[in-house]
Design goal:
Blueprint lengths: L10 H8 L3 H8 L7 H14 L5 H8 L4 E6 L10 H13 L6 E6 L3 H15 L2 E5 L7 H8 L3 E4 L10 E4 L1 H14 L5 E5 L5 H16 L9 E3 L5 H14 L5 E4 L2 H13 L9 E6 L12 E4 L2 H17 L7 E4 L2 E3 L5
Parallel strand pairs: 1-2, 1-3, 3-4, 4-5, 5-11, 6-7, 6-8, 8-9, 9-10
Antiparallel strand pairs: 10-12
Length: 341
């Protein structure tokens, strides 16, 4: 039978029951090496019998660890936090942290004041590392965090010369494959709806679109490209409407995200264009949308779960060894064929 004791069991009581020193109990709780298996089992039995709960605040203070990481979204429009891409990444990162002692803190950093406030918060020992997503080209936050020595991993990158650890998908290659598929299917006038071009991800996907046309010997035209103000469905609908006005003979479009593609489908339906009979549509991401598209969307699949796992793995490695050099990881994409193309 388990012993029932009034009040909260203490570290000293665990040590007494296990017949070991207080320091040995601390080493077992912190999974330290140098403890015999028989001793470790005795301490674990005592912890279970007494119902002892370690004082995590004291442990963090003693070990200079907060047992928490921050997932920071730097997109200035807070509404984008509800977009499917971001919710998928949050789920992927959360799943990757499930079997760790780390808490996940979600925060939004949009202005210079919020950047300074977050850096002060982070360097004050409240988090052990930072995961960044939706970082725009001129955002100084990654560099501000790097100067503090705080482990930081980005989803994507600000440029081709990024000096902070990041995990990214092969955005240019994925777009190139999508447009090559449209060309091989016989489409001749292919438009593009890009994301905001102050984001490197949007630049890469647009570059892949142009490279596919150039490799096939198809002339590129600036009028066939419309920049989305953001990665939302509304931007996709506006851009598609503009493309149809410029090129009524358009027979295919590559959209730089699934939400942009969903907006394009809305505009095509409103214009009386059939998909894919009149205009084929390909998106990018392959997340689970809030509602299915009609028709089901051909898209470039990003390995979102693998991206989340890899971000957490790299961050934990940097947390364990501050001497680890920054790493750049680019993961493969896959074209998923459905009814829209």
């Amino acid at each position: 039978m388990s012993r029932q004791r009034p009040g909260t069991p203490t570290l000293e009581e665990v040590a007494a029951l296990a017949d070991v020193g207080r320091g040995t109990v601390s080493r077992v709780i912190n999974n330290a090496t140098g403890v015999r298996d028989s001793t470790r089992r005795a301490v674990q039995r005592a912890i279970a019998e007494l119902g002892y709960v370690p004082n995590l605040a004291a442990r963090s203070l003693a070990g200079h660890r907060a047992d928490a990481v921050a997932l920071v979204m730097t997109e200035p429009d807070w509404r984008l936090f509800g977009e499917p891409f971001f919710t998928e990444i949050v789920h992927a990162v959360g799943d990757a942290l499930t079997d760790t002692p780390l808490q996940l803190l979600l925060t939004l950093v949009r202005t210079d004041t919020e950047r300074r406030r977050f850096v002060e918060y982070a360097r004050g020992g409240r988090v052990d590392g930072v995961l960044l997503m939706s970082v725009h080209a001129e955002d100084p936050l990654p560099d501000m965090l790097a100067k503090t020595g705080l482990p930081t991993v980005m989803l994507g990158r600000r440029s081709g010369e990024e000096s902070v650890t990041y995990v990214d998908a092969d955005n240019a290659g994925g777009a190139r494959g999508a447009v090559a598929h449209l060309l091989h299917s016989g489409h001749g006038t292919i438009g593009a709806i890009s994301g905001p071009l102050d984001m490197y991800v949007a630049q890469c996907r647009l570059r892949g679109y142009r490279e596919a046309l150039e490799r096939a010997g198809v002339p590129t035209a600036d009028s066939l490209v419309v920049e989305g103000g953001d990665f939302t469905e509304e931007s996709g609908q506006r851009a598609m409407t503009e493309l149809l006005a410029r090129h009524p003979d358009l027979d295919a479009v590559f959209a730089a995200s699934d939400t942009l593609a969903a907006g394009a489908l809305n505009a095509l339906r409103a214009a009386g264009r059939r998909v894919p009979q009149d205009v084929a549509v390909i998106g990018f991401d392959d997340f689970h949308p809030a509602r299915p598209t009609d028709p089901p969307l051909t898209t470039v699949r990003q390995p979102l779960e693998e991206i989340g796992r890899t971000m957490v793995r790299l961050l934990r490695e940097e947390m364990e060894d501050s001497a680890v050099a920054w790493r750049h990881v680019i993961l493969r994409t896959e074209l998923v064929l459905r009814d829209s193309a």
